[in-house]
Amino acid sequence: MRTYDYAPLWRSTIGFDRLFDLLDESQHRSENNYPPYNIERLGEDRYQISLALAGFAPDEIAVTAEQNVLTVEGRKCDKDQREFLYQGISARPFKRQFSLADYVQVKTATFDNGLLRVQLVREIPEAMKPRRIAIGGATSGGQITQKAA
User: Fold this and answer.
1) How many domains does the chain have?
2) What single DSSP character describes residue 10?
């Protein structure tokens, strides 16, 4: 894989620190492909992450949302020791982390037929949404009045 030097971009950008940190982290991290997952857009502000967790039970999986990181961990608690002639279904412990954008919240997590589905919604606070400002005429005091629409 090719590595990039982001130093020239640091000189001309302000407020994109987190973006460059994520890009830098993705370059240095060795990609682990277990467990396989899908990320889907269900609507303009709705998303779903699906993880294939064959062989795991719901009580062996932990889903944690903290700040802008969603963490899914799994650990098999093998109660009875079995002797496998061939084991093709992986049961190794895993920890998968997803970086979430600002204002993305985890709504629900369901486990059905070996698939863990995590529903995400982006809810931008009313104060952060764009609003139109009406421009009034100059009053006798020389002030411009603004009205929120």
Assistant:
1) 2
2) H
| Residue range 83-130, pLDDT digits in tens | 888 888 877 899 999 989 888 999 999 999 999 999 999 988 888 778
CA of 101: how far to CAs of 9, 104, 124, 135, in Å?
Answer: 21, 6, 11, 33
- Cα(114)–Cα(123) distance, rounded to whole angstroms? 29
Same domain as 22, residue 43: no
Contact by Cβ (8 Å): 23, 16:
no
d(CA 3, CA 8) in angstroms, rounded, equals 14
**111 bridge partner residues:** 116
DSSP class of residue 58 equals: G
> What are the tokens at 17?
């620190």
